[in-house]
Amino acid sequence: MRLTTVVAHGIVVRFGGVAALSGVDLTLSAGSVHALCGENGAGKSTLMKVLAGSVTPDEGSVAIDGEPVTFGSPRDALAAGIRMVHQELSLVPALSVTENVLLGAESPRKTMRQRALAALARIGSGIDPDVRVETLSLADQQMVEIAKALASADTRVLILDEPTAILSPRECDALFACIKQLTSPGQTSPGQTSPGQTSPGQASPGQASPGLAVLYCTHRLEEVARVADTVTVLRDGRVIASGPVAEMPRDVIVRHMVGRDVARAARTRNSPGPVALAVRDLSSGFARDVTFEVRYGEIVGFVGLVGAGRTELVRAIIGAAPIDGGAMMLEGRPFRARRPADAIRHGFGFVPEDRKGAGLIMHERVRVNTTLARLASFARWTIVDRRRERQVTREWIDRLHIKAQSTEMPVDRLSGGNQQKVVLTRWLLGELKVLIVDEPTRGVDVGARAEIYRILIELAQSGAAVIVVTSDLPEAAELCDRLLVMREGRLVGESDTVERAGTMMVGGA
User: Which of 164, 246, 295, 336 sits at 20 to 30 Å (Cα–Cα) from 40?
Assistant: First the structure.
């Protein structure tokens, strides 16, 4: 039986003279899940890209089963049986699920469909293989990405970058069951190997396959104990700790990640003020007949499974989606935004679920992304005062501890947590009545998560009304004053505990 072992030794990667990785060692073994943890900017993404062939190390080596390998491109890593599922989706929206899953491995349509169905079944997904990817939710698109990585029989190593960031608890359970199956002996990929043939890394006839080697990168530390056997923690491009998960509980991992204990933001539960926003029987897309109020000084959380209608609801409120029926009142006066600019003028802010696709101009500078919604306040006679713009941006970078070398740094060079802080900063520059935040800490490390909680709590304490859409029930419990539960497009009630909210989300009383 052939066991796959990937050993990365002394990996050094420099970008413009700055070391992203400094002498990193990592070992992946067949039939085992290795968790990779660290704050945004710790070097996790760079290390995964080295193993996936998209970054060439300046120093160090990679060996598979004792044989040195050199990856000049992702194609070389694919040929060696290494597949990576990126946090940011890389699907072709106009193609079907089947066409995306088998992209580059085309065969007769009927055969492709069967292979796509088998790959989807392995992760417990019932997605229709014939629909176009652009019609799917972000969570379903993530599942298609994972199925795509599993559709090839020669997959020996699977790298998962924040795979559960946009999945519901039920989908997470299905993924974890899939990972357990993939790492168990005797597992192969669906319908790829002809009788009498073996693929690289697979066992010969009569032998059991050893199972895949999985590298699992996550900010959700509660998942580490659940899914992984071994954990490695990076900080500032170096390995700080590595060993069995059983020997590293969550608080120890956090301390290794940030170099200190992370204090939770103090949440003072003040009495809320008058009603800021009242929504009556609002319908938009899948969301139907939703009625609720949010008061100044409180944080209201909308929880529910992915696809429950929460995002459709908040997009309609800020004018990014059409309203089919119902009414809204802002400070007791009728309000309706026909486009987001209308909502901004009335004091709304919105942080979307997909910060890279809808929240940021990725190639633009931090300064441009920070002042985008408040540009008029920096202009005189239509001419923007760039000096003042840079000064204010720099002040907020320092105030929110955004790790950016300068205000002119392209935002796509920031880590996910720092990008999220930039989106939040945009709404802190001017008067803000209602802030709506959709999945505020998706793909954000534990340190940045604490900072974002602090920002939102301080905003509410200063008098703003805050609406948080989250699939993370522990986050909702820590952050929100009230929890409103949505299921199948409707608001089914208010909960005072996350346990009851979880029951209501899946249809319980």
Answer: 246
**C-alpha closest to that of 460 among 472, 471, 452, 470:** 452
Asked if 198 contacts 1 with a C-beta cutoff of 8 angstroms, the reply is no
The 10 Å CB-count burial string (b at 16+, else e) for 261-279 is eeeebebeeeebeeebbbb
Mean predicted confidence (pLDDT) in 256-262? 69
Res 266 pLDDT > 70: no
Q: Global pTM? A: 0.65
Structure confidence at residue 123 (pLDDT): 75
Q: Residue 334 and residue 258: Cα distance in Å, rounded?
A: 47
Q: Tokens at residue 189, please?
A: 């990929």
Q: Is 40 exposed, middle or buried (0-12, 13-18, 19+ CB in 10 A)?
A: buried
C-alpha to C-alpha distance for 422 and 440, rounded to whole angstroms: 12
The secondary structure of 270-282 as a DSSP string is PPP-SEEEEEEEE
Q: What is the largest CA-CA distance in the chain?
A: 79
Question: CA angle, 347 as apex, 344 and 353 as ends, to 5°?
Answer: 60
Helix, strand, or coil (residue 288): strand
